[in-house]
# Entry
Amino acid sequence: MCFTEVESYNLQADTFSGRRIISGRVNAVGSIFNVDVANKQLQVSAAGARQKYIAHREDQRKQKTEQAGRKRKLVSDEVEQLKNRNCVSQMTLQL
# Structure
């Protein structure tokens, strides 16, 4: 398993745990309509979770662009090597 797969799995586990906690709280207060949404702690927690999610998505986007850049660089280097080999072989044939 690579790092991103492990990280994704951990986020899924955190999401599952979060949903279980929320469900338990809703059941404890009776229904979804009895949940106090004006609670400052709830608002801060939701805002923090959203920021973590945004940061995670941005990290994923950066990793994808870095990987694409590395692939592009490898292909470019390989093309240059082939051009150099071709030039050397042509020079050898001319001699």
Summary: The helical segments are 3-29, 40-94. The mean pLDDT is 79. The radius of gyration is 27 Å.
